[in-house]
Specification:
Blueprint: H1 2-13, H2 23-55, H3 62-86, H4 93-109, E1 121-123, H5 132-148, E2 156-159, H6 161-170, H7 173-184, H8 191-206, H9 212-225, E3 230-234, E4 252-256, H10 261-270, H11 275-284, E5 295-299, E6 303-310, E7 321-328, H12 332-335, E8 342-347, E9 353-357, E10 363-367, E11 373-377, H13 390-407, E12 411-418, E13 423-430, H14 445-449, E14 451-453, E15 457-460, E16 463-470, H15 474-478, E17 485-490, E18 504-509, H16 515-523, E19 527-529, H17 534-538, E20 543-547, E21 552-555, H18 559-570, H19 576-585, H20 609-626, E22 636-639, E23 646-650, E24 663-665, H21 672-682, H22 694-705, E25 722-726, E26 730-737, E27 740-747, E28 756-763, H23 768-783, E29 788-792, E30 795-801, H24 805-821, H25 832-851, H26 855-859
Parallel strand pairs: 16-17, 17-18, 18-19, 22-24, 23-25
Antiparallel strand pairs: 1-2, 2-5, 3-4, 3-5, 6-7, 6-12, 7-8, 8-9, 10-11, 12-13, 14-21, 15-19, 16-20, 20-21, 22-23, 25-26, 26-27, 27-28, 28-30, 29-30
Helix pairs in contact: 2-3, 2-16, 2-19, 2-20, 3-4, 3-20, 4-19, 7-8, 8-10, 21-24, 24-25
């Protein structure tokens, strides 16, 4: 039995005479532990922010997703590194797990899709609808209507996606532009930042040489066309799509000579990163790293007239008519809005003209005899002449309907009429339609009158209703009803198992960056974290409505609020960037490693970066708190108010460098964490063991009789020294009281991310049931003060982290009190009146201690 007890002691305390370590080694381990916790909190906060962004309507681009992914990966790798340093060689498998998950994450982030080898330049006669990935939609559609419909399209060629990739990679533009976008941080759409970014990228592109092989192919194709002027236009992959036309967002160069083609090409590529184009992508949720700028080079049509035709009304009801807009000369003044236009409205079925409106026009764009494009002013009667005849208008309508029929959707068509009366199609794309705006959810006066709780912090948005169900134990979890509102004292990670069944979550303690909040957002479950007095206010309440947007809980089912939410969600669409974000989050935020006791709780089972953070956190606590070795070198006997024997080891900054070398007084302690703990231990004198009834005494006798370690005169583990290990803001205490084993650890600095308080409690002299009852009594008291508590049999483990230094000091004072005043009460834990007595006593005494405790009081060094 002594051997078994010895093993249990070593497991709980993690110390023995043969496993001592130097203060320097322990300090390094403690620092790795604190840095791991800091990385954990920062990483969970980033995960929380990223998940919240996926549920918001805010604009963001791929730069945001990449930046956040990199920061989260860095935080996770730091946690892995720190855990490996705490126990070299034991957790190296985590590195492989992290690499595996990051590889999948990078695959989800990968932009510009699969690349297929293709010619750097393609003539229009070689292009059709199947060429979109290499020449972009604009040029592909022109090639299609030329080859399949036999319509007139200008002669020309496309500088392909393969050429774009070659240009970007040969000059190192891809990486450098991504870097500039990253550091610019313009996801908020700041015009000033976008303009600065545009200027820097444009100068960079202008300075890059076009690869010689690409240059040769471009000039070869232009020579084939002869001595003609070209319209050099964007034909980006993704441009002219049904939901993102990019109309007017990219640059066009008209009347370009062959010698100027390379410069024009650079300008078109640079327009990918114009302020307007970048803002457009942000507002449409399109990924900037997926944009590929193909460039069309088409002969400029010597046009008498030109314009734009809609085969359907772009908004409103479809009245069966199409609309033609026309101007004299080239259609430039239609698309750039620089001139009034003539309008023809034509019935689609009969091709009869329903209405005509001839505007007063002041200018036109024409091609000169030298091939250049210039603007001319119109004078006299020319200003009032129709740009085209009714006959041409009907011919245009007939041509447009053929195009619409071929592509099976309404079309937005740019056209030109040459001097020989031929209609040339310059561009065709799906006709965009306007969406319907939805109004925001509003609370009525009646709704507000039923608010019963408004102190919660929104951890996951949304509105839901259901029956309140208070969860404290594993049995409660097993009985949790489908569609219930999960109410809990603490935001324990284990509660995540209930989220698929929960309508909403409310907890009194916790953080919006914690595991539970993170998973609640993943499931889209409204969650209020840190709602003070939630348990008291909602106890006995049946149905409530939880508003995760405002942090409010209403009595009953608020039908109008819930109705608005349904309407809002039904109209929500997922953008391209948001789709990527959700794919990336699948490798970041899901939490499947929830049970540390499961055989699957191992690095190979980690399926997300969240899993790795959970694994690292759990194992780091075990290494530091349960299985860690403690320093005993340079220990000094503590001279204090308690009759028990304590020794103190300073691992750096925990004491004033005074004393005689063997002893140290309380007045020399600098560690605020130890001062707080000591205050809790000494503020109220222990009133001694409780009166023992016959059952309790028999239990103690049985325990002692079966344990040779308690035989007088025998060397035993119960007589080992208790050590305070202290630093400037750090304290670790291991204490023994007969069968009662306790370990306390805390760090109370200025950075909440690094702060924590840990407490382990096990053992006792009574039978297992009474020891378990005592552990539950202690656990409930600690939960009321913000600890997250786990109890297995009679072993209790409590933790608090990510809080202010003052909160840690208060927590350590509470633990200090519990250390002293829970001794031997397990003997009376079968008596319900005794249980109630200690519940009331603990609450009363702790309230007294905390009311007299403050950071200022501790910092003055007053301990008694």
């Amino acid at each position: 039995m002594a051997g078994i007890l010895k093993t249990v002691c070593n497991l709980i305390r993690g110390t023995s005479a043969k496993k001592d370590q130097s203060p320097e080694d322990f300090l390094a381990k403690s620092e790795n532990f604190r840095l791991l916790l800091a990385a954990n909190n920062r990483t969970l906060e980033l995960m929380s922010e990223m998940t919240a962004q996926s549920l918001s309507d805010q604009t963001f681009g791929m730069a945001y997703i990449r930046g956040m992914s990199v920061r989260i990966e860095a935080g996770v790798r730091q946690m892995v590194q720190r855990l490996c340093l705490m126990r070299p060689g034991k957790y190296d498998g985590l590195k492989d797990a992290c690499d595996r998950i990051v590889a999948k994450l990078e695959e989800a982030l990968d932009g510009r899709g699969d690349r297929h080898a293709c010619s750097l330049v393609l003539g229009i006669e070689r292009i059709n609808a199947g060429s979109i990935s290499e020449v972009g939609s604009k040029m592909a559609m022109l090639g299609e209507i030329r080859s399949e419909l036999g319509l007139h399209v200008p002669q020309g060629f496309s500088i392909t996606a393969s050429a774009f990739h070659l240009f970007m990679e040969s000059g190192g533009l891809d990486d450098e532009i991504n870097r500039l976008i990253q550091i610019c941080d313009c996801d908020g759409g700041s015009l000033e930042k976008l303009l600065e970014l545009e200027d820097r990228i444009q100068k960079m592109i202008e300075a890059v040489e076009i690869p010689l092989v690409m240059e040769r192919e471009i000039f070869k194709e232009s020579e084939r066309l002869g001595n003609v002027r070209l319209a050099v236009r964007s034909s980006a992959v993704g441009e002219d799509s049904e939901h993102a036309s990019f109309a007017g967002q990219f640059r066009s160069e008209l009347g370009v000579k062959a010698d100027d083609l390379l410069g024009a090409y650079r300008k078109i590529v640079a327009s990918l990163y114009s302020t307007t184009a970048m803002a457009y992508r942000l507002n449409h949720g399109l990924r900037e790293d997926d944009m590929v700028m193909c460039v069309g080079c088409l002969e400029v049509v010597d046009a008498m007239a030109g314009g734009v035709l809609y085969t359907r009304p772009p908004i409103g009801d479809d009245d069966g008519r199409l609309v033609i807009n026309a101007v004299p000369g080239l259609p430039c003044s239609v698309v750039n809005g620089s001139s009034s236009v003539d309008i023809w409205v034509i019935d689609r079925d009969s091709l009869t003209i329903c209405d005509t409106e001839v505007a007063e026009k002041e200018l036109r764009y024409v091609q000169t005899s030298s091939g250049r494009v210039r603007r001319e002013r119109l004078y006299g009667d020319m200003r009032f002449e129709p740009s085209i005849s009714d006959k041409v208008a009907k011919k245009l309508a007939k041509t447009a309907l053929r195009i619409e029929e071929h592509f099976k959707r309404p079309q937005d068509i740019e056209w030109a009429l040459d001097r020989d009366g031929r209609i040339f199609i310059l561009q065709c794309r799906p006709l965009s339609v306007c969406g319907v705006n939805t109004s925001s959810v509003s609370e009525s006066t009646e709704d507000r009158a039923f608010a019963i709780l408004s102190s919660g912090v929104s951890a996951s948005p949304g509105i839901a209703a259901g029956y309140v169900f208070f969860v404290q134990t594993d049995d409660d979890m097993a009985r949790f009803p489908d569609g219930g509102v999960l109410l809990s004292r603490n935001a324990r990670p284990q509660l995540a198992a209930l989220l698929p069944r929960a309508a909403a979550v409310i907890t009194e303690f916790g953080s919006s960056v914690g595991h539970l909040a993170n998973v609640a957002r993943e499931f889209g479950v409204p969650a209020l974290i840190g709602a003070s007095e939630a348990v008291e206010r909602l106890s006995g309440v049946s149905v409530v409505t939880v508003n995760g947007d405002t942090g409010t809980v209403y009595l009953g089912r608020r039908k109008e609020l819930l109705k608005q939410v349904k309407e809002r969600r039904s109209d929500f669409g997922e953008s391209e960037v948001k789709s990527v974000l959700n794919q990336v989050l699948q490798h970041i935020t899901p939490l499947s490693l929830t049970d540390p006791n499961s055989p699957d709780f191992k690095p190979e089972s980690c399926a997300s970066l969240h899993d790795i953070t959970r694994y690292c956190h759990e194992k780091a606590v075990a290494e530091m708190f349960m299985h860690g070795r403690r320093p005993v070198a340079n220990a000094r006997r503590l001279v204090g108010d308690l009759p028990m024997r304590y020794w103190l080891v300073d691992i750096g900054g925990g004491t004033v460098n005074s004393g005689d070398g063997k002893y140290i007084g309380l007045e020399y302690i600098r560690s605020n964490a130890m001062k707080a703990l000591w205050k809790g231990m000494t503020a109220i004198p222990w009133e001694g063991p409780p009166p023992v009834n016959a059952g309790g005494l028999a239990s103690i006798i049985s325990q002692a009789a079966s344990n040779p370690a308690l035989v007088p005169g025998v060397a035993n583990d119960m007589g080992e020294r208790s050590y305070f290990i202290v630093g400037t803001n750090y304290c670790n205490l291991q204490s023994r009281f007969g069968f009662h084993f306790c370990t306390v650890e805390g760090f109370a600095g200025e950075d909440p991310d690094r702060n924590y308080a840990l407490f382990q409690f096990k053992g006792g002299g009574a039978d297992p049931v009474r020891r378990q009852n005592r552990s539950h009594l202690v656990g409930e008291a600690l939960e009321r003060h913000g600890f997250i508590v786990t109890i297995r049999n009679d072993a209790l483990f409590a933790r608090m982290e990510g809080v202010s230094g003052e909160a840690v000091e208060r927590a350590l004072a509470v633990v200090g009190y519990m250390l002293i005043h829970t001794r031997q009460i397990d003997m009376v834990m079968s008596d319900q009146s005794a249980v109630r007595h200690y519940q009331e006593k603990f609450d009363r005494d702790i309230e007294y201690i905390l009311s007299h405790l403050s950071s200022e009081y501790i910092d003055r060094g007053q301990l008694s």
